[in-house]
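Sequence, structure tokens reproduced for absentees:
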Amino acid sequence: MSDGAFAWTASIRVRVDDPRVAAWVEQALRPEASREVPRANADLRRSSDRTVELTISARDSGAMRAALNTYLGWIHLSLATALAAGHSE
């Protein structure tokens, strides 16, 4: 798009049983969400004590695909680390 608008959006909602795990996921993603990524933005928020929501906005489908792959990978890593540490998802 020539005007630089963010035409693509996607939302990811992660719900867990343990509020501590939600806090860890949020802490793990916060630095990445605040980073300036070419052609994409991310907004991270807690909608409840057990839910983390990430909204990604991208200028084009390639940027959206890259951002989704990246954030889903980080979410998976955060949850796998919490599980390995003995906390439920």
Remarks:
- The mean pLDDT is 90.
